[in-house]
Amino acid sequence: MHHKIITSLLLLGSLGLGTSILDDTSAQAARWHKGAPKIARGTWTDKPAVKGGEYDVLQISKKKLVFDDNTPNMTHLKYKKMGKRRYKFRGYNGETRRHQSMSTMYFVSVHHVTFNDSGNHLSLYKK
Predict the structure, then answer these.
(1) Which residues contact 82 (CB under 8 A, 6 or more apart)?
(2) 72 and which of 44, 89, 95, 112 could share a cystine (Cβ 3.0–4.6 Å)?
(3) What DSSP letter does each residue of 72-120 carry, written as one string?
(4) In this model, does residue 23 exceed pLDDT 60?
(5) pTM of the entire structure?
């Protein structure tokens, strides 16, 4: 009788330990990672309303993010995965000489994203 109770307690304890280990690894997924995710790298543009018209360009490499020529570059990029298709970027802004973390990117599909930076909400497509 005591043997069955001890066996069941050991089994429950090992299941609880396994669950706590799994919880710790999923908690680390929300940390800041160096660089930019591979899926976000490349040149993203919006479609101009008029042929030959002006359009926005977002270029992302492993270590920097450039939005048009008017917005300062973010270097020393880091990213955090905020959900299944949402990423948050943080980097060093040379013009203001401080770190910023206000840029987010949401993947509608592999070739279509929405990008938010300092209140600008853009729909961009992979070039």
Answers:
(1) 30, 88, 104
(2) 95
(3) PPEEEEEEEE-SSSEEEEEEEETTTTEEEEEEEEEEEETTEEEEEETTE
(4) no
(5) 0.69
